[in-house]
Design goal:
Pfam families: S1-P1_nuclease (PF02265). This is S1/P1 nuclease. Keywords: Disulfide bond, Endonuclease, Glycoprotein, Hydrolase, Metal-binding, Nuclease. Helices cover about 50% and strands about 5% of the residues. It is mainly alpha-helical. It has a single domain, classed as P1 Nuclease, CATH 1.10.575.10. Helix 3 packs across helix 12 and helix 7 runs parallel beside helix 12. The radius of gyration is 18 Å and the shape is globular. The N and C termini lie far apart (about 50 Å).
Length: about 270
């Protein structure tokens, strides 16, 4: 059955790639309330940075850090979710067994981030995961339904070379802009504010909704190119969609951080 097959495969954890994750983080940082920004800066200060973009790719980077292999092994399934069919309806017990998927991981890490009783080191790590996973769940191929490892096994031709659909959505489409992440964020931020999709009733889990949105994009007729060639027409059609997901992710990440960090009291027990 397709439902069981999808639970056995995992997409690459590098949704959007460094460019996309940094853009999402920067767009979010520009929308933080003053209180939330102060708390972000306080949590990140021990790492000699105050910018979300500087930590947005950390949950992927630990994959190549020999000192953090246990953490990577424990969290590698947090980056994606496999739906059971192209109906893209989230059922936790079926689609997120044991809570090991991006939907449940986001919920857990958001709770940890907002818990002032937790040590700063724990909340700092949670902040890094929240920034990254909000980006992941908005990458369509991190919430697909096909048993093709999030498009990694769907081979395509792109820019005259062999590739796969996941890599195209990971970095290929965004790379056609030829912009660095700061310039890309500036360009996207200059557009009118993105209109976020309305909540889906009766679904009361925003992270599940974001995953369902991504899944439905992969289920669209023209998402998987039937001739397996990514040409100009596909890029022209798909790049605006990818950029919209980046902007939605940035706006939603800001909302999450503002809600969890925006009411920080002035007295802190600095627990490093």
């Amino acid at each position: 059955m397709l439902a069981s097959a999808t639970l056995l495969v995992a997409p690459s954890a590098r949704a959007w790639g460094p460019l996309g994750h940094s853009v999402v983080a920067e767009l979010a940082q520009r929308r933080l309330t003053p209180a939330a920004e102060r708390e972000v800066e306080r949590l990140l200060a021990p790492g000699h940075t105050t910018r979300l973009a500087d930590v947005a790719n950390w949950p992927d980077q630990i994959r190549n850090d020999s000192a953090r292999q246990a953490l990577w092994k424990r969290t590698s399934r947090w980056h994606y979710i496999n739906f059971s069919s192209d109906r893209c309806r989230y059922v936790a017990l079926r689609d997120c067994p044991g809570g090991e998927c991006v939907v449940a991981a986001l919920a857990r890490e958001v709770r940890v981030l907002g818990d002032r009783s937790q040590p700063d080191t724990v909340r700092r790590e949670a902040l890094k995961f929240v920034v990254h996973l909000v980006g992941d769940v908005h990458q369509p191929l991190h919430a697909g339904y096909r048993p093709d490892r999030g498009g990694n096994q769907y081979q395509v031709q792109f820019e005259g070379k062999g590739s796969n659909l996941h890599k195209v959505w990971d970095s290929g489409l965004l790379g056609t802009s030829h912009l660095r992440w700061q310039a890309y964020a500036n360009w996207l931020d200059a557009r009118p504010p993105v209109a976020l999709p309305q909540a889906i009733a009766p679904l009361d889990d925003p992270y599940a909704q974001w995953a369902e949105e991504s899944c439905r994009l992969t289920a669209a007729m023209d998402f998987y190119p039937s001739r397996r060639r990514i040409g100009l027409a596909y890029v022209d059609r798909s790049l605006p969609l990818a950029e919209r997901r980046l902007r939605e992710a940035g706006a939603r990440l800001a909302e999450v951080l503002n809600s969890q960090l925006g009411d920080v009291v002035t007295q802190h027990a600095h627990r490093h």
